[in-house]
């Protein structure tokens, strides 16, 4: 997941898909919803940067050679060289032990904890 979440310029953002190629199936690699194109170069224009912080993986199903899990990925987002804010994104994934690749990655939303401790996924 670090290949997907680490970028500090437009070139790095655009390279995320290629950087993940070795660990994802062809179907995931071809998923344009997951690997959105930055048509207007907003990453460059706004000086957006992202750093992978950690994953929390909660297995939900294990069968033969496949593991399904909910993954909470923390990334730090910031504008160029400024202090960032951590964001937690929620994914449903399927890992195939036979191919050693992620064969399904679906973003479920962004996990938020409010001041009153209520939890939501946007």
UniProtKB/TrEMBL annotation:
Q: Which domain of life is it from?
A: Bacteria
Listed name of the protein = Uncharacterized protein
